[in-house]
Protein 1
Amino acid sequence: MLTGFLLLPLAGSIMTLFVPEHRKTEARWIALFFSTLAFILALVIYVAYDSTAGGMQFVDSTNWIQTDVVTLGFGLGVDGLSAPMILLLGLLGVVSVLVSWKIDEKPGQYFAWLLLLESAIAGVFLSLDLIQFFLFWELELLPMFMLISRWGSGRKLYSATKFLIYTLAGSALMLAGFLLLGAAGGSFDIQQLTESPVTETVLPMAVVFWAIMLAFLVKLPVVPVHTWLPDAHTDAPTAVSVMLAGVLLKMGGYGILRIAIPLMPDAALQSQDILAGLAGLSIIWGGVITLRQTDLKRLIAYSSVSHMGYVLLGVSAMGAVGFSGAALQMFTHGTITGLLFVMVGYFYDRTHTRQISEMSGLIHHLPKGGIIMIFAGLASLGLPGLSGFVAELTVFLGAFEAHPVATTMGIIGVVLSSGYILWMVQRVLHGPADPKWEHLRDSTSWPEWTAIVALIIPIVLFGIYPAILAEIVETGLQQVSGIVTVLEGGI
Amino acid sequence: MDSGWEDSCGERGFEQNIMLLPDIPEILVWLIYAAPITSALLIFVTLRGLNLPFLSELGSDGRSARIAVIFGLISWVLSLWLLDTTIHHHGEDLGFGDYVWLSLFDLEISLGLGIDGLSSVMIFVVASVALLVQIYSIGYMKHDPGFSRFLLFMSLFIAAMLGLVMSSGLLQLFIHWELVGLTSYLLIGFWFERPAAAAAAKKAFIVTRFGDIGFVIALTVIWINVGTFDISEINLLAHAGGITAPVLTGFTLGLLAGAAGKSAQFPLHFWLPDAMEGPTPVSSIVHSATMVAAGVYLLARFFPAIDAAPQSVSTVIAYVGGFTAIFAASMGVVVTDIKRVLAYSTVSQLGYMVMAIGLGGYVAAIFHLFTHAFFKSLLFWGAGSVSHATGTFEMGKMGGLRGAMPVTFVTFVIGSLSLAGIFPLAGFWSKDEILLEAWHADKLLWLIGTAVAFLTALYMFRAIFLTFFGEYKGGESDSEHGDTHSGSPHESPPTMGIPMLFGAVAAVTFGFFAFMHFGEFVEGALPEEMRHFHFHVEGLVLMISTLAALAGIGAAAAIYLAGRPQASDISSRMPKIHSTVSRLYYVNEVAEDRLVRGALLSGLARGAELIDRLVIETVVNGAASVTKLVGEGLRRSATGQVQSYTSAYMVGLVAILGGFMVLSGDMLSVFGIDIQAIIDYSLKMMNPKNLIPPK
């Protein structure tokens, strides 16, 4: 089943590649077909996952490389931590195809890259083996680079390259860290290394920990290694922004919860204050800079820096509730920011500008788009009843005891978020109608609306009844929170 | 409308009421909350063109109006029944169950109904004012193109407000607290095309959220230390001494910060006058009777915890309230917009209530909240009615309206007398309870309170004399307020007049509940040892405050009716004070220009952005140059940065992938694809020629 989820987008990717260039519609439909199938499969996996049993389920594994020295496994599995990520990926996969419907320049190649990206990310979330994890982690770079540099706008080459350099720098260290761990533990199997953690390598554990963490922190991203994100977002096409903010950043948080903490719990516990400090800094720094942004897309991009800080804050608490908050925040931020980027694209497609100063009173001409933009904004500022609230609150409750100062910074970040969101709404949507935008009309195209509705549903659903998400997340985090609780008791 | 109360209270108090009605079932209590939600949903579907059978003959506005009123009535009738039931139970908690909403490891969040004397009074207030406001809005907003949207937002607000006062858990309360803030945002910004309204809406939301920092810290602190969000559990534990003093101090001060934001207490008061940009019905319910009272409710709800906290917490609360009361009242005397006079008056009266809580006057605070909700709504309805006729809220452009608008005039005077605390109107009884608490507890605060009584009478009668006496100044023909009609002044339609009449009846009579064991009833919400309220009056306190109020009226009459001395003479004699007060003590300037625009946007944010651009970029570009050198080395060419990076990347990727492929033949079959082909293709794509899309 999981292999199916991994291969479906890839199959679609290859098929779209062979669609002749002039038959654009077919490429779209093939992409939609495969991404929808993958989403359905993700939904089945999510529903069929047995929360009471817990652990890794639907495991597909083979031994891939067997030498005398080391065995490399190829294994796919899903647990309560990865299941929501897979669901999110499947959902955003469909959404990103739908919002790319109007891509006119070589759609065959475009969708091939987009679907390859989905497969690569799926590989990251499903991997049971460190080296395999790393390979998929690297594989995701290529489609991202191509999509931004070829189908982007503005300084797209610069941004794509910056993205590449940052990630490569991080992942080089990550590979080194993995190799050290694997060498010391005699295996690259994540589960095995979790159950009997490596306590000693050639280098001090703290060095190994930070080498691996750096890759995740760059991805998340955390101040001060965040500057690739606003550029990449600003110049990427809408669908890529959706994937980037929606699932790519989550690879960082996922890596921390799946690898960094369970495999090196001692080092993680010793570093928790630094992590909390970075989290608080990211939240405030990101929030404050967001206030000054004049480009709509850049504004949302910087707000991601602030919001992903909550993931790190939850993680830094090194406790069950904080971890849950981080996992919930990853999921909800994916849907909410995904929707925000879709809406930014919606406005850009019509006004052909992203400069906030050039917009005013757009809600008069685009009432439906305006209402959904406000909805997404409210979700982003953590309004109760929508999914962001539960996630942020859980982070605060989990982190306050361990890190009161950083958590207070997080709470202040919520006020900053209402500042930049509502100010944006005031400048872009409210105010008198501008005759310049007289000609604008709300969208009537079904792909656009399907994408929007597909994102609204989980935001409302998990906001009103978070238990359906919380239950599975709780199972997924039992192991890692068990490990840190035992260790904390020892300290 | 007070008949329900009297039926069940009877003359000898609630202990011996006539048991006509059985206890209200839990599902119907939920219905009080569900009714406005249903109303909102129905208005929404009718707006979308769905025709409901029993309303088919009406236009869409008429349908919305009918839906809103019917469901408002349902809520109100049920709130009366609920009040009756709680009176049977002596105001003690009815003990409805809780339902688990979210459970994550140690964290369990439940939703449930916490119904006792305190909350049932609040539910009654909210449901009553809501019903009257919905009726009033039908007249006031009739010609607005967004009429149905307005009733929809109002229904949502009412639901959130009812949810707030019904909550059994602190977190559930907080959820509704935020939703109330949202609906307030939507309603203030109802005329979003007006920049002032859009700005005011944003300001209200952000400033109240600033206070919520304290609220969130409070609920986090209490959960970490007590492990529950249940309000009565927290209160009982605090009362029994089961929570340490530092925790209680942090908790209650956090709540105070939240309450200060919502109830517009200094220094977070400055959003409320701006919120008057919203339609007048909104000002009357959201920004005078209910939402802004939520902060006081919150403090009252946790009164046992405040009582158990160190004395200094109570002192802080009392002085925040007392200072706000006199500070806001002084501004009420100088502003020229009639709604802003009422707004500052609301801030000032909320200060009274907060002060009462701090002084230990739990009953006095709630009683004043109760009477104030009705007479202040009435005053707002009057102000709306006046502007409906004249097209302006500027008192300088009104005058002489008492002949043309007799109903408005009479009800407005009644409301003002009640607010000024003239015997025997409602405000007299409730305000005197507060002053009595102050007299016994803290003479300085009593002095402040009495001065506020003087100022209150002064600014209200200044408003009356400017608006209803003298010559008509012609109003505003070219109205900038979207909710008004111009022309010669005329009395408002009955949909507006009837709520005003009801409000006037309440403003006169509701004070007498003091004699009907109102205090004992709301004390049912407290632990037993804390119930020690006995209604009494003290001649001296009562006389001094009445004299102060009469002096205020007299001063207003001398200056604004007789013109001796002229208002301009007074202001020119003390220019410094006058300009400071009329610039509202420069709070807006400091908060918006200095702190937000100056320190935050131009200082902190600009600095952070600069560091982002310069320092971090320099480091990154430094690293990039190294990469560039490597790339150049590899390619032995200097065609540009990008190619170098891509080649460096590709070399790396190919090396890694190639290495593994050499190691394993199985991999290809597992992937089911030809990786080599992908890599070849990628390399082809990487060719610089392909990187630049054709123009």
Protein 2
Amino acid sequence: MRNIWTIAMREFKVYFTSPIAYIVLAMFSVVFGYFFTSGLAFFMDYSASVQAQGGAGAPPLNVNQFVIEPSLGNMSIVLLFLMPMITMRLFAEEQRSGTIELLLTSPLQDYHIICGKWLGALLLYACLLLVAVLNISVLFLYTTPDWKPLLVSLFGLLLMGGSMIAIGTFISTLTRNQIVAGALTFGVLLLLWVLNWISSYETSTFSRLCEYLAISPHFEQFSRGVVELKDLLYYISAISLGLFLSKRSLEALRWKA
Amino acid sequence: MIQVEGVTKRYGPKTAVSNISFEVERGEIVGFLGPNGAGKTTTMRILTGFLPPTQGTASVAGFDVGKSPIEVKRRIGYLPESPPLYPEMEVGDYLRFVAAIKRIPKKEIPRRVDAVLERTATGAVRDLLVGKLSKGYRQRVGLAQALIHGPEVLVLDEPTSGLDPKQIIEVRGLIRSLAGEHTILLSTHILPEVAGTCGRVIIINEGRIEASDTPENLTSQLQGANSLLLDIDGPVEEVRERLELDLAVRKVVEHEARDGRMVWRVEADKDENLTRRLAEAVVTSGWGLYEMQSLGLSLEDIFLKLTSDESAAVQAEEEMPEPEAAESDTSAGEGSESGEGEDE
């Protein structure tokens, strides 16, 4: 465990000694801030008109449903672009610079290295979530959103992000070129993102399969504050598969090195 | 301490190392000598557990590299050809990180870091980013990294490549000072390095071990013939006849004309009294002897002799045009190695 943590902390710090963390955080803050502000503006406008029509007796609109849910839902689109930036360097950089030789000749198990790197990236991603929470917490100053579904969606986002990072980690082991790793990761994530689109026009087994494999639909329940076993299983399997493939790829690296 | 038995490594159809076996005793400094692409790096990578061998076994300190890699890795300090440094880290942080992944107890880390910084004379750059270091410092930080867990065995892959002469002397001195505490296997294609630092030399070429002995023994064993350079002032034909008279002399060659005299190269069997006899012969004939120089076979000659069999000669035309250049110019050498796919 200490080994994993050592690797994770190094990865996490490297993000902050290089421009990556700042660029990712800045981009995320701006884009998420925009989503959130526009969501809020819509909510204010809409609730004002509802009040005007229904009078003072109408039940107040749910802030969770109208502001938090959509902005967190949209946030995952931003991740599509930011995640490759976070994961592309994980192994590609080490392979290019030869530092992978240090890790692979140290008394570490392969899973220490892989889990450590995955965790390091996940920590940076957690910082992004923190920015989102910071935005949302403004709501608590003026109204009383339900915090429980918010927590559940954050948990879901962490799982979804973890899956994306695991996929990115695996792809990063495949090449020594960061750009290639980043582009491939983006392509794969985008495909997983739109995979469920086909199911709106077709109902074959294939399209049902596609819907299950798509990454975003599994977050829908989380964003409403509902934890479903199938969604939980999906993300956990995605993370395990990504890390497992990374391990196999790292072993293959030794054979072909 | 290090045992390698019948190790073969193939990359697809290409055989990088072919059935090599050798042993290194505790406390020895062994030099691994060979041209670029000979299989030095591959052998070292197998020993350090970075690469699995296709066939054969290797063990370090009694632990099999394949069966108990973690135990082996704990006991080996490895400096790859290009030091595995993270440019965005500070030297001190980097060494603390390495100490942690080498499984040094947390409490002991600061002490170990201080110790290796002092040992490798890198204390002055402790707070600098690794990426800002000069090549010499990078190499030393690389060494510090290999030393930090006090390994029994040090494996150094071309530890002086790319350094300037002053830095080379410093690094060699550092390596010599490590002898005794550590068993050291170092590779190089620079011959004086081996002669100056190593107790034993293993010459490897095309993935095979060509010879393994002390630098002195290798020199005398392969010497057999002794060459002398004689600068003699006298009539050319008479001098030749007189020189050829000596029983030990095998061949007399006109080497070069110098200031109206002739410089001769004499090849002879090994004979302790040869120089005395030849000097006497010249003087009694009434000629002038301006210079007499013994051209002992250097390690370079041995190296070239051992590594330039027919197959090497054929290959030399295609891919290794600069065995001599490689010795003096390491950067040119590195270029040819990448062509071999060894550091891919």
